[in-house]
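This section describes the prediction task in plain terms. A model, or a person checking by hand, is given the sequence of a single protein chain and must write out its three-dimensional structure as a string of tokens. No templates, partner chains or ligands are provided. The sample shown here is typical of the held-out split.
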Amino acid sequence: MDTPKLAAHGPDYLHGGEHIVFWGRSRGELGFVWPSRSGTGLILGFGCIVAVVILVGARLTGHSLPANPDWPKVRNIWPYVIWAIGQQFLLQSFFYLRFEALLGGRLAVLASTGLFAVLHLPNFPLTGMTLLGGLFFTELFRIYRSLYPLAIVHALMGIAIAYSFPDSLMHHMRVGLSFWQFG
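The expected answer:
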């Protein structure tokens, strides 16, 4: 497509992309709101407890912390936080909401969690953790419809996992083809 046609039809393309991503849903339906204080406290509190349990569990099983002295680097934490927000948006606002429209709430939790876990293959340890975390995240999204505390907890748990498990097991938390390229 040449530049003048792209410029003339650009707004149409943007509107089409917006429709695909947001599917005519409001900010609240997509989860771009904070839940009640009690909901926020529950999500953040439970997530922090799980992150601490991951760290303490690694220490109690004789692993040194950090498991990888050169990773995760502090400069990589903010990009991971942003990536956690993106993953929660994809899991909840994109996949879960579509599965919910097709299957209803409970089955949508299982379907979107299963898909989210499969996307973490062939990293089997991370896939298993993703399955458990995905059930937690998606069920709480079903109840509270909020991405913000879920993204914060996702980032905390992911950083705890990266800090606690050696690269020999987690392959730098890579998935897909990059899993095989880790060396």
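For orientation: Confidence is low (pLDDT under 50) at residues 14-19.
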